[in-house]
Design goal:
CATH class of chain A: Alpha Beta
Helix content of chain B: 25-40%
Order of helices and strands of chain B: HEEEEHHHEEEEE
Radius of gyration of chain B: 15 Å
CATH superfamily of chain A: Response regulator
Number of domains of chain A: 1
Number of domains of chain B: 1
CATH topology of chain A: Rossmann fold
Distance between the termini of chain A: 17 Å
Largest interface: A-B, 23 and 25 residues
CATH architecture of chain A: 3-Layer(aba) Sandwich
Shape of chain B: globular
Strand content of chain A: 15-25%
Oligomer: heterodimer
Shape of chain A: globular
Order of helices and strands of chain A: EHEHEHEHEH
Radius of gyration of chain A: 13 Å
CATH class of chain B: Alpha Beta
CATH topology of chain B: Chemotaxis protein chec
Distance between the termini of chain B: 13 Å
Strand content of chain B: 25-35%
CATH superfamily of chain B: CheC-like
CATH architecture of chain B: 3-Layer(aba) Sandwich
Number of helices of chain B: 4
Structural class of chain B: alpha+beta
Structural class of chain A: alpha/beta
Largest sheet of chain B: 7 strands, antiparallel
Number of strands of chain A: 5
């Protein structure tokens, strides 16, 4: 079974994305900040990551974009989907430049998550 | 009231009404709302604040009674949870609701349309009712939305 790493500082957002991914047949692990996401990625080497773009700074990792930069250093083929609000286009562009593959807007709908995950996983 | 305060509270109110209807299936939210210039705000049970920085400074708040927060999380969450889990998550969901909707309207604000940028902080949430009083040189506005006789307060102050 494919493994997804769900990264978000909000427990409710992690719970929602996890339930949706589990319904799609993925196993999930979770991290609540960028620093934890980097260590979880190193440890478990997930098939893909959903990463909230705006999270509080922890251990020097200021947000989801910096977490992407660090994960790409570990694995340049990492498959990362950014989770973002509509007003954060500048941040999405930075995240894509840093190596993220795609993004999804909040509020996350099941059908849209399925579509984006399918695009990323088949690449 | 200057245009900028009216604009953010009007756009946020309309976005939250749409969000509750379309994303949380809370069809009974009323389409109309009021915006008032106030000297203090008596917040409801759960209140979350997000700070604005950049071209527009100030603090935006959203406040709801616990019963309404529970209805909101029931509409938001995917899958089945028991009541105690939902109650826990309902507090965080108010923060996420403001975070999502404020993020959604950010690029529609005239200051952003004119080329400036506005940054929003991560939400700070309080789980008890509180009163905030306007600073002597400050401004304070509140928008009141209604859902089945329960009020949602949206505020902007600096």
């Amino acid at each position: 079974m494919a493994l997804a790493l769900v990264v978000d500082d909000a427990k409710i957002m992690r719970a929602n994305v996890k339930k949706m991914l589990e319904q799609l047949g993925y196993e999930t692990i979770e991290a609540e900040n960028g620093a934890e996401a980097i260590s979880m990625y190193e440890k478990y080497n997930p098939d893909f990551v959903t990463m909230d773009i705006t999270m509080p700074e922890v251990e020097g990792i200021k947000n989801g974009i910096e977490a992407v930069e660090e994960i790409i250093k570990i694995d340049y083929q990492a498959k990362i989907i950014m989770v973002t609000s509509h007003g954060e286009q500048d941040k999405v562009i930075k995240a894509i430049k840093a190596g993220a593959m795609n993004y999804i807007l909040k509020p996350i709908r099941f059908e849209k998550l399925e579509e984006v995950v399918m695009k990323v996983v088949v690449i | 009231m200057s245009n900028i305060e009216e604009e953010i509270l009007t756009k946020l109110s309309n976005r939250i009404i749409g969000y509750l209807k379309d994303d949380l299936s809370m069809q009974d939210i009323e389409n109309s709302f009021t915006i008032e210039d106030v000297s203090k705000i008596d917040y409801k049970d759960i209140t979350t604040f997000i700070a604005l920085n950049g071209a527009m400074k100030g603090t935006v708040g959203m406040s709801v009674p616990s019963s309404l927060a529970l209805q909101m999380v029931e509409g938001f969450i995917f899958g089945d949870y028991d009541k105690s889990e939902l109650k826990d998550m309902s507090i965080e969901n108010v923060a996420e609701t403001l975070n999502i909707t404020l993020g959604n309207i950010l690029t529609d604000l005239s200051v952003v349309q004119n080329g400036s940028s506005v940054d929003i902080s991560t939400p700070y949430t309080m789980h008890n009712s509180t009163t905030i009083t306007k600073k002597s040189d400050g401004i304070m506005f509140v928008a009141t939305l209604t859902y089945n006789d329960q009020q949602i307060l949206l505020s902007y102050f600096r």
